[in-house]
UniProtKB/TrEMBL annotation:
Transmembrane spans: 23-43, 63-82, 94-112, 132-153, 193-225, 267-287, 299-320, 326-349
Protein name stated in the entry: Corticosteroid-binding protein
Organism: Podospora pseudopauciseta
Highest taxon of the lineage: Eukaryota
Region (Disordered): 371-390
Lineage start: Eukaryota, Fungi, Dikarya, Ascomycota, Pezizomycotina
Keywords (A to Z) from UniProt: Membrane, Transmembrane, Transmembrane helix
Length: 390
């Protein structure tokens, strides 16, 4: 494999984003402030309906088969009742569908990042199941503000610091998570099938089932979507790798997702379509009478506020790592096509401008574009596997 050339092409311009110039302690000020504001706003919008809902579960008067379970019965009953009441009308189902499409986009993005070689050293990024469970069952926006976003910032700063100290050399393995030319690749090409299958079966299907037929059972199934998504992704990855590698060994190799149009379509198409559909559904329900009852309004208000602050946190994440143009593009797309499409399309645009190495002294970032590393013959013409410099 040829070693990357350490020289910038004519007209190359280095992007200086906050992730390159600010230390981690300064970058975390905004997420911490957002967490404080989230707590204040949620407290201000709390009402007796939420407390009464918990009291009914504690008195075993709601969902008896669930609330009578020792220790876990009351909180489980409250969670199921909370989301069940939030989806109890046509208008609220439309609002939830928009929020769920946003979560589908975020789930896709976080799973893609978990599959990238460069994020393997970070347990919080590479294994997101636990954090998604905490987000879904307990923490809400606080998980994104205080754990997930700081984990990504910390990993980015690690890469930036390391690459500033020592530029890549020819003896660095291609799949090295910090210096390798394949650092932004997915670990296997089969992830482009496993990820959308897992998101579709583990999250989108339970979400549609819950909104179409709201019951304690469907809500309970939906609440554990992080487990279903992870299990289905691992199963699909193993099955597709074992079956497709017999036809083509490239399914077992790494892949730079953003250089593969077909791969991006497979990964991002579903959350984008869900976002557009939910956006249209919401606009249609706005022309219909509002059928929400008081309890539905109270619970849905909490979910909407929480989703809003998650969106602000993700927007700040994009702004710090990719700049204001990508953030503006994500906001515009979210308004037109829905937040799920905004996250996915914004993330694709982010990868086109993202500089994971930072503002090094030479102003050089090695980015592997195309198929798996090492496909260029020594002395051959540049091809899809040729490392580009920007």
């Amino acid at each position: 494999m040829n070693s990357p050339r350490l020289s910038s092409p004519p007209g190359a311009r280095l992007r200086h984003n906050p992730i390159h110039s600010l230390s981690l302690r300064y970058l975390l000020i905004v997420p911490i402030l957002l967490a404080i504001v989230t707590a204040v706003v949620l407290f201000q919008h709390s009402d007796t309906n939420i407390y009464m809902l918990y009291s009914q579960c504690h008195a075993r008067s709601r969902i008896p088969w669930l609330s009578h379970i020792p220790l876990l019965g009351t909180p489980s009953c409250f969670l199921v009742s909370f989301f069940g009441e939030a989806a109890a009308s046509l208008r609220s189902s439309a609002i939830l569908s928009v929020i769920f499409s946003f979560l589908a986009g975020l789930l896709t993005v976080s799973t893609v990042e978990a599959a990238r070689i460069c994020n393997a050293p970070s347990i919080l990024i590479a294994y997101p199941t636990g954090l998604w469970l905490i987000f879904d069952l307990i923490g809400g926006a606080f998980v994104w503000e205080l754990i997930i976003i700081p984990a990504f910032f910390h990993r980015s700063r690690e890469i930036i610091t390391s690459r500033r100290q020592d530029l890549p050399t020819s003896d660095v393995p291609s799949a090295d998570p910090t210096f390798g030319e394949a650092m932004r690749h997915l670990t296997k090409t089969s992830e482009t099938i496993a990820i959308p299958f897992a998101v579709a079966s583990g999250f989108v299907a339970p979400s549609i089932l819950m909104l179409a037929h709201t019951s304690p059972v469907t809500v309970l199934i939906w609440l554990f979507f992080p487990l279903w998504t992870t299990f289905l992704r691992q199963s699909a990855r193993k099955l597709t790798t074992l079956s497709l590698v017999k036809l083509n060994e490239s399914w077992q190799e790494t892949l730079h997702l953003e250089s593969s149009t077909l791969g991006m379509v497979r990964v991002y198409l579903l959350p984008i379509l869900c976002s557009v559909a939910s956006h249209i559904f919401l606009l249609w329900t706005l022309s219909q009478p509002d059928d929400r009852k008081e309890m539905t309004r109270s619970t849905l208000k909490f979910i909407t506020i929480d989703a809003f602050f998650v969106g602000l946190t993700v927007l700040y994440w994009i702004l710090v790592e990719a700049g204001w143009r990508v953030a503006a593009m994500m906001v515009f797309t979210s308004v037109v096509l829905g937040p799920g499409a905004g996250v996915c399309l914004g993330w694709v645009y982010r990868e086109a401008t993202h500089n994971p190495a930072g503002a090094s002294g030479s102003g050089v970032t090695v980015v592997a574009v195309g198929a798996g590393p090492g496909r260029r013959e020594e002395g051959g013409e540049p091809g899809e596997g040729t490392p580009l410099l920007r």
